[in-house]
Amino acid sequence: MKKYGYFDDLRKEYIITHPDTPLPWINYLGTDSYFSLISNTGGGYSFYKDARYRRLTRYRYNNTPFDSNGKYIYIRENKTGKFWSTTWQPTRHTMEMYQCQHGLGYTTIQSQAEKIHSNVTYFVPLNENLEIWKIKITNHHTHTVDLSLFSFVEFCLWDAQGDATNFQRNFNIGEVEIDSATSTIYHKTEYRERRNHFAFFSCSEPLKGYDTQREKFIGSYHSMESPVVVENGNSLKSHAHGWAPIGSHHIEVTLEPEQTKEIIFILGYSENKKSEKFSPPDSQILNKEKVNQKITYYKDPKNVEDAFIALKRYWDQLLSKFTIDTPDVHTNRMVNIWNQYQCMVTFNLSRSASFFESGIGRGMGFRDSNQDILGFVHLIPEKARQRILDLASTQMPSGGAYHQYQPLTKRGNHELGSNFNDDPLWLILSTVAYLKETGDFDILKEDIPFENQKNSEKSLLTHLELSLKYTLDRLGPHGLPLIGRADWNDCLNLNCFSEEPNQSFQTTANKEGKIAESLFIAGQFVYAAKQMNELFIYLKMVDKANHYSGAIQKMEEAIVQHGWDGEWFLRAYDDRGHKVGSHENNEGQIYIESQGMCLMAEVGKKMKLATKTLASVHRHLATPHGIMLHHPPYTRYHLELGEISSYPPGYKENGSIFCHTNPWIMIAEAMNGNPEQAYNYYLRINPSAREHLSDLHRCEPYIYAQTIAGYDAPTFGEAKNSWLTGTAAWNFVAISQYILGIHPTFNGLTIEPKVPQTWLEYKVSRLFRGVIYSIEVKRVEEGENPSCEVDGIQVNSSTIPLPDVSKKEVKVLIKIP
User: Fold this and answer.
1) What pTM was estimated for this model as a whole?
2) Fewer CB near the last or first residue (10 Å), C or N of the chain?
3) Which stretches make up the Glycosyl hydrolase 94 catalytic domain (predicted)?
4) Looking at the predicted structure, is the pLDDT value of residue 672 above 70?
5) Which domain holds residue 806?
């Protein structure tokens, strides 16, 4: 199979050496409020905070090429008239060399055509609402060359939904402003509506010309591949009035042989804070003072270089909080660099904006964001804290939750509403993870509103109890939790036949008679409630612990009595009381979700159900490319099951390898004492370990994808939906906490390795509550016994207690059999 690039672990980069990757292989720029996506050929888009309501640049989904359009710089040799784009696309000119370096928060694309070498670095400086494009151009001819450079972005009219649909309005509202003195193009569409924000696109060089009207720049019947302005070598100084506003600078450059010229472009966002005081006439006047200060600052190459160095230092320091040195290069690479990097991106954006997510409909997922915290919390705990409070404030007084909320408004998405009955329980898991990581129990006293409504505040601890109560108030005829619209599997919609109230089963919580029950939520309840009980015991709230111990026991009994199918756990009961995920079914006999969640919750531990369950998973669901969601897949549409059966066999929820759920089985195998199998499953979906399959896998070899086509799919092994997936967080939890065995607790750091026998030793450096734990794990030598030493003193517990606050480092030596 073709190899498209390679890892540079020292520089923390993936180097792409062929521009025609199977899919665009992308990167994310930005760490706080301003974000930008960029592919290995310059495609992508930018936005401020909210990919729907603050979209700076336009992107066309489901297009050809796949990553249209983007952040382009065209170079034209004026004497010959030949032109090309520095990023290969969109002109796809034959290149003498090409290389894309995707790093942490930056991308550098180098290329050479017609003996003109270009090096473009894209990045978002820390704490800035702008992005930098720094281009260096070198002339490798033996003679002087005269070049023209044309930058290009296409502005989005802010609301990406309206931008893509409301053309009778859009073609009339586009407005720009040009400041030739500062080489800046301002995009101010809708500024007159007191939206009070604008974009800017500036350049460090004096302008030969500019264009702001797309049709003028490209030509009525041309394309991005051959814009008429670039073909002719002269900008038209077009001024957009409606239609499609763009930003394009025209710069002339003369280079002697081997001379290099550096040019800086700055694309950014500005918002004035006091829009409510603006009168309509004033709202058309841009407040440029602060923006121009930023532009002036970043036109200085030294300041750009300092910002770039600061960005790299930021990521080095961040990732130093958890580092490993194991015998396996794929594990080291993913844990030390790319898995944690992806955890950061998914935390920032949830499932809102990628090349597979439009940034319009999803917003920040309640379930998604809580899970993302699990893999992120050790990196920037204070951000995790705020996210937990934001999520809790969208919760309803019933304990239910809006499935998603918009990041700009932090209001629940009423279009999707609630009734995904697993949602509330995820808040418990993220909060407990935060508490174990930080020891910040004061967060439980924070007064948080419901649905962001004033005068409705209750403590976060109350919110967590309501999450448990929400489940207990909604139990079905088997004593199992009602699924509602769906649980974790959004496409498993089991209440399709309940159009009329069911007269045979009515409860206070279930007036509509929709009685479909979820074994997944049942296991999740036990898993979450046990963690809450652990918290109650730590807080010495004995009565609470005793109360929920009874609820846990009752739920476990219901699962074993009504949810055990003899070799594995059922998935659900539909709204007619029929089993889902049973050997009695012709299709969809066994599902991964209920197996993983029930085993992580240790349901049926006394009966030793884990061994049988995991054997069934291996026999029915495991493939060389990962573990399938269920099997056999559905070959026809089942109204009683809903959307899950609308997919072709082997794709997405209908029997694909849904990578998000694979770590649950890794965790279960490790907990059941099967480290070899746990690690084997880990490697099957590890992107680095799949790099040699790039032509088949297609997605980035440095980032987890959401799904891989299952055994029954014609494209078995092909990945889709990369980057924004809970796979990132859960894989980090599985490898760091259960396989490597470094697990935060309320009282200290527990170290219980479950690694392959071939690993004779490995090292972990882990920052925990301000202290570096330098951990070395070795196999016992002949005649030795397993042991644990902390700073040279032998201890009899796998939990290393919290050290004295003055201590900066703890050295731990673990010897394992």
Assistant:
1) 0.95
2) C
3) 314-741
4) yes
5) 742-816
